[in-house]
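Translate sequence into structure tokens.
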Amino acid sequence: MSLRLRSVVEHVETPAAGAAPPQHTELVERLLARVPEDPDAPAPDLVALVYAVADPQGHKTTASHLNHRTGGAAHGFALTDQGVGGPFIALRVAGAYARTGRGTAPLVAVVESGGTAGASAASGVLLRLDGPDGPDGPDGPEGLDGPEGLDGPGGRGGLALADTVAVPVDRLAEAWAELVPAKGRLLLVLGPGTDPGAAPAERTDVRTAPADSSCTAVWRLLAQEAESWRGRYATVALCAVDTATGTGHLAVLRDLDDESEPPAGSTEEEEARHG
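Result follows.
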């Protein structure tokens, strides 16, 4: 089962010289203020706060604060000490949680204080996802039917999270090549320091995320351009490399409006094969 990206917003600020960077709670509040009005959006049933470096100020339980501010009925957790891989791991957890049938409306906040390693700007990204909730339920036709989505009544278009994987850096080129769709184009969104030279030569475009961020970098670019990618790319792959562990983290999103067949071995094909 895929989780559809319902909305994604970012907030970025560069603290003035001598000023303390915003606390994680402040970043969360700025993100919530940017979430578009969507009365049909389900309340979150899973809330995750991701950060690579601890809040430089205060000791607030920001994950609980985010849960409270978005309805207070979700299971919540914070994920840290995972570097640039943190957001990818949180999405993997969200996907696994959805597959249990206990909830299909995760909310993931990624926050990063300015002045930390690899991040000169304070930034945050808030991803709101949802799953199949139409009259046929999770096992209905296409597994992605629903009432009112991004495309209006009956529409469930947009980008959906198909997979999150971690691969050794020396196998990234192979992993990217396997993502090139049979039809349409692949977009690779690379974090700072990720070598674009290994990108596939065929039907692939490459974007590099802002260099002033670390764990939020590729997600910021997703927030800025997700809508413009719809219809242009059958597959979008976000990739960040953890140089300390030599691990490449990949999040694969597919365009729900695209009618081409997913590559062999993809998450969609595996789910269809195993029911």
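Note: The radius of gyration is 18 Å.
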